[in-house]
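Assemble and predict.
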Amino acid sequence: MNPIVRAVDVVKTFGEVKALDGVTLEFEPGIIYGLLGPNGAGKTTLIRVLTTLLKPDSGEAWVAGVDAVHHAAEARTHLGLAGQFAAVDDYQTGRENVVMVARLYDLGAREAARRADEVLEAIHLTDAADRPVRTYSGGMRRRLDLAASMVGRPEVLFLDEPTTGIDPRSRIDIWDLIRDLVAGGTTILLTTQYLDEADQLAARIGVIDQGRLIGEGTPEELKDRLGGAFLEMAIDEADRPRGMEILGALEGEEPVFEPATKRISVPAQRGSGTLVQAVRRLDEAGVTFEDVTLRKPTLDDVFLSLTGRAAEEETAAAGADGGGRRRGRRSR
Amino acid sequence: MTTTGRSSSRVGLAHAAKDTWVITRRNLLRNVRLPQLLIFATVQPVMFLLLFNYVFGGAIGTSIPAAAGGKYLNWLVPGLLIQVAAFGAGQTALGLTEDLSKGVIERFRSLPMARSAVLAGRTLSDLVRNGFVITLMMAVGYLIGFRWQTSFVGLVAGMLVAMVFAYALSWVMAAIGLAVKNPEAAQSAVFLPVFPMVFASSVFVPVETMPSWLAAFAENQPITVTVNALRGLMLGGDALPPGDSVAGTVLLSLAWSAGILAVFAPLAVRMYRRAVS
């Protein structure tokens, strides 16, 4: 199948800063592609190039088979964009906002109204549709923005950090919406700095850092690269150096200490075998430890192995839940 | 695969007109839904009218041409209409920068709509708004004693010349807004050129009383030309500086408006295409 989105060696420089340093990626229709990376990695710049808002210095950008650099006007008929800020008018009602965008997709007044009803229903905003947007919560505004971006039934939807700055409940709502959209045949490229979000939603993930794509694959593939499970535990500060040493000797892999959660994590190729061995050795050495768990690798570990540093180092300032993400990681 | 129904080659005038109408309507809706915006936009010029008339009227009244019928108010109203037009045009910059900062322009630029529609819609909605304020000024002026000395046709023609000029200035302000990009900066950026232009003109006083270096500028700048055109149309040829004809002054004003449009409309459109928030 032909790729529906294709970027070839895209370079974009802002003054001294190389925002995109030769990004190449492509994916097939009907999936969610997750572009994962810390703040300033180049995610938004790539979206702006693909959605015709920005001309790259060099390279190619194709959307739905259309050259988005040289035939921007035609490319726009195939795409929808929901940017990082909910671009909705406060003084219009939710319905008016969506109808306006539908009209700008060149739909007739009646058809625009019908489509608006449809998408408002889909995002569960029908009840609030006739209220001015200034009465909406942050999550509702984001959903409305999403509705506006999909009202023209674009083949490809670009969602730039669709859940940044949103309460956890609305976040789940938006995830459900995104899944529904893909089930309905839309292709989605979304950017996120949340590792679990990419893990939850994306069929394929591209890891972007400093303007380069540094890894790509399905979430499983990315995790499989790291092999088996991880062993995680907490060790008191006094015993920590000795404990780290013991854990490091298990399989010759360097343990990682996460200051935010005070937990130590180390690869455990042999799964429970490694666990039992670790517990025995720590106990023999008289090291106090608690809260031992064995878990599958997460995208945090993927990021760490690809970049040599944790994603949080750069994103901690950006997300209010910077430290909480690691704590809240799920095991699969 | 579903598509949006617009074929890429269709970039006709009808499509641009429809997109422009959608944007114009959206902008006008804001004035209706947030009436406080319109109230503040009208209170200020009305206050100017009352203050200038009652505070300065007595002192200035003796040095204005006889064509004004001996009333400073008659002289003042055509001038204030242009002052209102100049300040009102600043709204174009403010509206655009607000849309830029909220990501609305980003959304519009990603849609398959006519590229000219956002600016055309913005300037048109500001024209309607300016037309409303100018009409209101006229009404308040009439209530406190303004009387045109020519004909009703002259009065209406004067208002139209004012609106053409306001429309041209809107495009200047659009370019300024797109250059500064953020609403706070736009606030001062628009007043910077407008204030000296309005005061160093014949809006409030005849330019002959200014020092000669300033008068030379004031006589020839577009605000004075347009104010004179309005006075010619509303008060008659005697209200103009000696040697000027009403028709000549009106044509000169329209030429200024056309020239401003010819320079700033393409400039603003080009800046819009490149606008990066």
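The CA atoms of residues 49 and 80 of chain B lie 7 Å apart.
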